[in-house]
């Protein structure tokens, strides 16, 4: 039952839109998060495009959810491209969740150089170096134990 909650969330989003609801950033982000849960990265990208076309600004949660969906789909290059897009937005405040999603995508594909580079970038965005290195270490430990 809980496995299909992401599908129900997308259905509610679409039905509301059919009834004329103009979704805000939170609504779009929730739908993109549902795409992440369902492994529907293509639909997540479509929703991001629709969101921007509707004049809604994606936030940290939007990008983190979509990067995680791309990670599940094995699309690390697209995830890194999306991270760059997010970081270029002046209104967006990078956070550990955003970077961690991208680091995890790199780790899953064995791209340790990229993961370390992102970890160091994370430390430069006002989070401590020890935190970013701890995240990388945890990610490496998890992958080695699997």
How is this structure best described in words?
The chain has 146 residues and is mainly α. It has eight helices and no strands. It has helices at 5-18, 25-38, 41-53, 60-72, 76-88, 96-108, 112-124, 129-145. The radius of gyration is 16 Å and the shape is globular.
Keywords summarizing the entry:
single chain, 146 residues, mainly alpha, 75% helix
Produce a short descriptive summary.
The protein has helices spanning 5-18, 25-38, 41-53, 60-72, 76-88, 96-108, 112-124, 129-145.
Strand content: under 5%
Global geometry: globular
The largest β sheet comes out as: none
The value of Rg in angstroms is: 16 Å
Using DSSP, what is the number of strands?
0
- Overall mean confidence score, pLDDT: 85
The unreliable regions are none
Distance linking N and C termini = 27 Å
Q: What level of helicity do the residues show?
A: over 70%
Question: From N to C, what is the helix and strand string?
Answer: HHHHHHHH
- Which structural class should the secondary elements be placed in? mainly alpha
**Helix count, DSSP H or I runs of 4 or more residues:** 8
Helix and strand arrangement:
Blueprint: H1 5-18, H2 25-38, H3 41-53, H4 60-72, H5 76-88, H6 96-108, H7 112-124, H8 129-145
Helix pairs in contact: 1-2, 2-3, 2-4, 3-4, 4-5, 4-6, 5-6, 6-7, 6-8, 7-8
């Amino acid at each position: 039952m809980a496995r299909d909650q992401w599908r129900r969330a997308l259905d509610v989003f679409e039905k509301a839109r059919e009834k004329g609801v103009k979704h805000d950033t939170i609504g779009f982000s929730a739908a993109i998060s549902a795409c992440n849960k369902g492994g529907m990265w293509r639909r997540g990208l479509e929703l991001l495009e629709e969101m921007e076309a509707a004049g809604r600004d994606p936030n940290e949660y939007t990008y983190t959810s979509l990067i995680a969906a791309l990670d599940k789909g094995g699309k690390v290059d697209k995830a890194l491209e999306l991270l760059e897009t997010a970081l270029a937005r002046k209104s967006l405040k990078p956070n550990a969740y955003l970077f961690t999603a991208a680091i995890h995508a790199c780790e899953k594909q064995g791209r340790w150089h990229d993961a370390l580079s992102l970890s160091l970038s994370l430390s430069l965005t006002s989070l401590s170096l020890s935190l970013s290195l701890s995240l990388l270490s945890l990610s490496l430990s998890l992958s080695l134990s699997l």
